[in-house]
Design a protein that fits this description.
- It is a single chain.
- With 1132 residues, the protein is mainly β.
- Among the domains are: 118 residues, no CATH class; 90 residues, Immunoglobulin-like (Sandwich), CATH 2.60.40; 116 residues, TonB-dependent receptor, plug domain (Ferric Hydroxamate Uptake Protein, Chain A, domain 1, Beta Complex).
- The chain has 21 helices and 55 strands.
- Strand 25 and strand 26 form a beta hairpin.
Length: 1132
């Protein structure tokens, strides 16, 4: 009992000091706590140590254990408390050392104090070895007095003296020492036979302060003058994700994340503060551990970013405004995504395994006709054929459906269908995915290492689609000398995926329900088996016999050295590379109707390779004057070279399907092969200076000069500057003591960035082929088609940003708001030239566009106590886009309508980019309007379009802007709950104000009788149902309207239950006997529900492929799935 009481007493100073830092986490400084006790700072009186401890216990959830003689007759003066002003933790240690008191921490809320005159507690009587060393502050190298040094698993321990040195007798040199100090990290260091161990500890004040990765360095968030969003490791762990884009979705305001397809490996589309270009990429720049990834999209539309397993990522930062992105100059126009991967640990090996298995299914089915409905619609259409095509009907152009229903494979003797196939049920499946991630991280004081391997086996919800990926990464960092460190990392991923042919998705809609997948004899069935149908094969046959395999190998590596010249000056050199090899292999079978039967099989192989290398030298200088003036300066140089090559060979005419694409030489008809090669180089010089005055006034200036071989000889180099100011108002004297506002900062920035991601050689003249008739025969020639432009230069982004950061009630409420204006100038466009010039086009800088927006991010800690907590994150982004200028004010038509002719969308001055063009549909002509309909050569039952210009005709001149795919706003609402060892997170996503051109309607609603149709045709016009947007049914051959119009324009707004995760952390007392450090079990539901008016599979999918926007035009899209997942995370 006496020993236990004595052990309790050894821990009180740690309580004392940790409470101080706990209070800081709650927004109250150490000085304010101490000075609040008897107002020492004001009166200059002394306070007894016992009284101070009692007041702290009464105000905070902590307990101090000590004998009365430890604190008796001990007092603290205001002069001693002043030691806290320079370094809180170190000052407290000095006070307690001066009082001859030793401190020890029992748990998070219990501390023991004891007199230093007593011997260190020892759990053994046979002490054999003595360890000595020094403990210093990792920040400034100063010695740390009062650090507790303990032999792990025993009560043997001591503490460092006033010089930071210690001497400890240990049982063996195989033990592990635990170093702990209030306000600093706790470190465990294996002795490994050493007799001297010097270590450094990192202050929790630094660790607790958010450190943000920025371009070519890091900064404390409080010192940032730019707009930077962060997703940390805790957030990444809380939401199980397959790839980086999933991990990033909804976490940061101003960042819009979507998929172009729901199939495995579907290409992510990320837009930061809208779109800045109409002809170049709008993808952000991705940088992984300092290495710039291949910017160009790979085959299949994929991106190298998705080869990085989320489990190996430590943090993701998104740079949004010019102050943050200007350091990347010509590549910063679309924002920058910085990914920092996990590194080794200075402690012993730590092993972690994370594994999960999930099942996915389609979240929604499309309403299409069943067998009975299909046959009824066919009959109605036939009955209306004479109305719309009397001559053709009289001439026997149309066949009575009853006369076609005599195939015994499909109909019984009475003409009733034998089958009612639900093609969606046939195509979809419950897909199983399993993922495994294993990491081993460790090291010692000199060297750290990390090994990370992962495996992902993912089935698509559509049969025959899948993805398999192996990946691994190794990193090492070593301190060669006290002035030189070196390290590097290398990662490799090997991914193989089977993609589905676009016709597979189309036939999911159009395969008729009266035919089976296969007949009883095993032969394939299809639309062509029923007279009058289009000859497309059935959906399952396309999936099985049209093979598309995409193999990708991705290597990402870097080597770096850090040379420390002085405490203030450091040189970092890095060599990085990103190498990507791909091969797309395709084969369509000899008997596959419509696709390859006429060619007796088609095969192709398309290998490609890209090599990116970069060499960078960074010189960093930091200095601090009297804790008032702080300067951090960066000077850098970078050179990057990128080369790519690709080739393709296609053949057709096979004797059988055995070899597929593995032996092209046996085909009868080879097509001439093709090949390409590209190369470009960038040379850059950049600098950034951060200045802070008294932790209140912040100033950042950045500049970068980029030179690129992609641009004209007159504009190879460009300068991209930025400047930013910040004011931490909450640090002003007049704000001290404010119990409501705990943080208040305003910042503003302005700068220029560029977009250099154009195709190579665009400034040079381009060749093209021409045809001419000589002597009655066609001859092909080659001539100059594109005019050279030596003045070709970067697209420039000018961005202005004002930001506010506000923390209330000890930062339990945090708000971050940004208002920005982003103007894109010198946009690159192909300008048509007069035919008399002899050229077709010239690539010029001839346009401008603007994005204006507001971003809000609110975080609240609603409830926080020992057993239960509830926090909320809400963000919303509002962006307005407008095209300001085009050459000559002329429109640029893009994305032609699928069936209706004319442009599907348009770029026009004064409108948002990607504005959809079409007719205004007013419903259908009714019988009372027959005379007026006749004036437009229409009948009651036809679609009624608005005559916009009142010229008495419906033509291209009546097409007007009818919507756009750019959302008015989007965001997330995330709630996190914890109760004891349980945690629950609920992530709700929303988007509003965007339109979707659902072009599938052209094929599946407008045309009937030649394929299956949407269920909406059951609402077609009849004399008894005239108030409908769907035209009267008639055979396709009788003529029909199928144009882009407001009926096909869908509201793309939605609310989605994106992610719900419930987890349970196994209590430590259960794990410790099994030598398990942690064990977390979790269950996740993804895409649980979607509330939307959109009639297609998913409003977030875009199949338009538009380069300038997410497009949000859909034809036949691969649906996004609903997923239920179980997983575990275990650490040793």
């Amino acid at each position: 009992m006496k020993r236990l009481r004595y052990a309790w007493q050894i821990m009180i100073v740690l309580i004392f000091m940790q409470i101080v830092f706990t209070c800081e986490a709650n927004g109250q400084s150490t000085e304010s706590i101490l000075y609040a006790s008897s107002e020492l700072g004001k009166k200059g009186v002394v306070i007894s140590l016992e009284q101070l401890l009692e007041e702290i216990e009464g105000e905070f959830t902590v307990t101090f254990l000590y004998e009365e003689n430890v604190v008796a007759d001990k007092y603290i003066s205001s002069g001693q408390l002043s030691l806290l002003q320079t370094s809180k933790a170190r000052g407290l240690a000095q006070i307690l050392t001066a009082l001859n008191i030793h401190y020890w921490q029992l748990d998070e809320e219990t501390y023991v104090l004891a007199e230093k005159t007593r011997s260190p507690i020892s759990g053994t009587l046979f002490q054999q070895e003595t360890i000595t060393g020094t403990v210093t502050d990792a920040g400034d190298g100063a010695p740390l007095p009062g650090v507790n040094v303990m032999v792990k698993g025993t009560t043997t321990g001591t503490s460092t003296d006033g010089e930071g040195t210690y001497s400890l007798t240990v049982p063996t040199l195989d033990d592990t020492l635990v170093f702990s100090f209030v306000g600093y990290e706790i470190r465990e260091i294996p002795i490994n036979g050493r007799s001297a161990i010097d270590i450094s500890l990192t202050s929790e004040a630094i660790m607790g302060e958010d450190v943000v990765v920025v371009g070519y360095g890091t900064q404390q968030k409080s010192d940032l003058t730019g707009s930077v969003g962060t997703v940390d490791e805790e957030a990444l762990q809380g939401r199980p994700s397959t790839n980086v884009s999933q991990a990033l979705a909804g976490r940061i305001s101003g960042v819009d994340v979507s998929l172009s397809s729901g199939e495995p490996g579907g290409s992510p589309q990320i837009r930061i503060r809208g779109s800045s270009s109409v002809s170049n990429t709008n993808d952000p720049l991705y940088v992984v551990d300092g290495v710039i990834l291949n910017v160009e999209r790979m085959q299949g539309g994929s991106h190298a970013i998705n080869s990085i397993p989320p489990g190996s990522i430590e943090s993701i930062e998104v740079l949004k405004d010019a102050s943050a992105t200007a350091i990347y100059g010509a590549r910063g126009a679309n924002g920058v995504v910085l990914i920092t991967t996990k590194k080794g640990s200075r402690e012993g090996p730590r092993i972690n395994y994370n594994g999960s298995v999930s099942t996915s299914s389609v979240a929604k089915k499309i309403d299409v006709l069943n067998a009975e409905e299909f046959l009824r619609v066919e009959e109605i259409a036939y009955s209306n054929a004479e109305k719309y095509d009397p001559a053709g009907f009289a001439g026997g152009k149309y066949t009575n459906p009853a006369d076609k229903r005599n195939d015994p494979r499909l109909f019984d003797q009475n003409g009733n269908p034998l089958y009612d196939t639900d093609w969606q049920d046939e195509a979809f499946r419950s897909a199983i995915t399993h993922k495994h991630n294993l990491s081993i991280a460790g090291g010692d004081e000199m060297t750290t290492y990390g090994i990370y391997v992962s495996y992902n086996d993912e089935e698509g919800v559509m049969k025959e689609s899948w993805l398999e990926r192996y990946s691994g990464r190794f990193n090492v960092e070593t301190e060669v000398t006290d002035w030189l460190t070196a390290g590097g990392s290398i990662s490799y991923s090997n991914q193989s995926q089977k993609e589905l042919h676009a016709w597979s998705m189309r036939m999911l809609y159009e395969s008729i329900p009266i035919v089976p997948v296969k007949y009883p004899d095993g032969t394939w069935a299809g639309n062509e088996d029923y007279p009058g149908m289009e000859g497309g094969p059935n959906q399952q046959r396309v999936s099985e016999e049209s093979i598309h395999i995409l193999d990708t190998q991705n290597i990402l590596a870097n080597l770096h050295t850090n040379i420390t010249f002085t405490d203030n000056l450091e040189l970092r050199t890095m060599l990085g590379t990103n190498i990507i090899n791909q091969e797309q292999d395709n084969y369509s079978g000899r008997t596959l109707p419509f696709l390859s039967r006429d060619q007796e099989g088609i095969a192709s192989i398309s290998p490609s390779r890209s090599d990116n290398w970069q060499l960078e030298n960074l010189l960093n200088y930091t200095i601090d004057f009297n804790n008032i003036h702080s300067i951090s300066a960066l000077l850098g140089q970078s050179i990057q070279t990128s080369s790519s090559s690709s080739s393709s060979a296609t053949v057709w005419g096979f004797l059988d399907d055995y070899f597929k694409y593995h032996n092209l030489g046996i085909a009868d008809n080879p097509r001439p092969p093709s090949s390409t090669t590209n190369k470009y180089t960038m040379s850059s010089y950049f600098s950034r200076v951060n200045y802070t005055y008294d932790d209140r006034y912040l100033f950042t200036v950045t500049g970068r000069v980029d030179g690129s071989s992609r641009f004209g000889t007159n504009n190879r180099y460009a300068f991209f500057p930025s400047a930013a100011l910040g004011w931490r108002i909450s640090e002003e004297n007049f704000m001290q003591g404010n119990s409501i506002i705990s943080n208040l900062k305003v910042r503003t920035s302005y700068g220029l960035t560029g977009n250099s991601e154009i195709a190579n050689y665009q400034y040079e003249a381009g060749l093209g082929t021409y045809t001419a008739i000589f002597n009655g025969s066609r001859n092909i020639g080659v001539g100059v088609q594109r005019l050279a432009n030596p003045n070709l230069k970067w697209e420039i982004n000018k961005q202005f940003d004002i930001g506010l950061e506000l923390g209330l009630f000890d930062n339990r409420i945090s708000l971050e708001a940004d208002v920005y204006r982003r103007k894109s100038e010198d946009m690159l466009l192909q300008r048509p030239l007069p035919r008399t010039s002899g050229y077709a086009t010239v690539f010029e800088n001839i346009g401008s566009m603007e994005n204006r927006g507001i971003e809000l991010a609110l975080t609240t800690s609603n409830i926080e106590n020992a057993n239960f907590s509830w926090s909320t994150e809400f963000n919303i982004s509002i962006n307005e886009n407008e095209v300001l200028k085009l050459h000559g004010g002329s429109d640029i038509e893009t994305g032609g309508g699928v069936h209706g002719g004319g442009a599907g969308s348009i770029i026009r001055e004064g409108l948002p980019v990607n504005t959809f063009m079409g007719y205004i549909a007013l419903g259908t002509w009714n019988t009372d309007e027959a005379a007026e309909a006749a004036e437009y050569d229409r009948l009651p039952g036809d679609i009624k379009y608005k005559d916009v210009n009142n010229d008495g005709a419906i033509n291209q001149d009546d097409r007007v802007p009818i919507g756009n795919g750019v959302p008015d706003g989007y965001g997330s609402f995330i709630n996190s709950f914890s109760y004891k060892n349980f945690e629950l997170s609920a992530d709700i996503q929303f988007m509003y104000g965007n339109d979707i051109m659902w072009e599938a309607v052209h094929s599946t609603e407008d045309r009937v009788g030649i394929a299956n149709s949407l269920g909406s045709v059951l609402n077609a016009w009849t004399p008894d149902n005239q108030d409908t947007p769907v035209a009267e049914l008639r055979p396709t051959q009788a003529g029909y309207d199928t144009d882009n119009d407001t009926h096909r324009m869908q509201d793309g707004s939605f609310i989605r239950g994106r992610n719900f995760t419930l987890s349970y952390n196994i209590p430590q007392e259960i794990l410790t006997p099994w030598s398990v450090g942690s064990l977390r079990l979790y269950a996740t539901a993804q895409n649980l529900f979607t509330i939307t008016k959109f009639r297609g599979y998913d409003p977030e999918i875009s199949t338009s492929g538009a380069p300038f926007s997410r497009g949000r035009a859909q034809y036949f899209e691969y649906p996004k799935s609903r997923t239920f997942l179980l997983g575990l995370d275990i650490g040793f």
